[in-house]
Amino acid sequence: MTLFDMKGKVAVITGSTRGIGLAIAERMAEHGAKVVISSRKADVCEQVANSINERFGKGTAVAIAANISSKENLQNLVDESNRAFGKIDVLVCNAASNPYYGPLAGISDDQFRKILDNNIVANNWLISMVVPQMIERNDGSIIIVSSIGGLKGSTILGAYAISKAADMQLARNLACEYGKHNIRVNCIAPGLIKTDFAKALWDNPENLKASTSRSPLQRIGIPDEIAGAAVFLGSKAGDFMTGQTMVIDGGATIS
């Protein structure tokens, strides 16, 4: 058994049909975990689960669609995950929303509420649904995918950045609440990663060059470069880490 072995663990990953969530699901499966693939579209979830089962063995993955804006959908995600695998050891809150780019003075109330509801409130809902069984077993790992946006000010990502800063505080608070039950709660804060979600920030070559030229590694990241941190946090390797935010940004926040 290695520090990063996830055999016997069940991981639920939201927003896991593409980008960072997909990379995390694939790497956790590679390290032996059973994984629950979840996003809004059932057919896409099925395609991803089938692909993972083909690569890592039948029964490694199941598909359970859920819209994070629906409390009922999230409860169904938990119930069906338990029905499929009997438990949830690792929860990765990766799904998020960002319907607005621009100054805060221009954001509509509905857009602001959607960002806060989906990126903070929904995470707390889902965590609260999963935690009771972790308390019963006296073990669990919760991972929230935040962003370096939560560490910096922004003229175009203000509401999103506020929500991601709140996720870091959510992790700290919950780490304090659940630490006595051996439940760890941490964040991963990626920098600029080449995903569809962040396409508006890297699709323009001039914007990409301006962003990456200030970073020590001078390049954009890829989803798989975030996945290893999730495996660390979900495995024995991360057993003594809680309430922290792992920044993985090519050095962008130090330069």
UniProtKB/TrEMBL annotation:
PROSITE patterns: ADH_SHORT (PS00061). It holds the Pfam family adh_short_C2. InterPro entries: NAD(P)-bd_dom_sf, Sc_DH/Rdtase_CS, SDR_fam. NCBIfam families: PRK07231.1. Belongs to the short-chain dehydrogenases/reductases (SDR) family. This is SDR family oxidoreductase. PANTHER family: DEHYDROGENASE/REDUCTASE (SDR FAMILY) MEMBER 4, DEHYDROGENASE_REDUCTASE 4. It comes from the Bacteria.
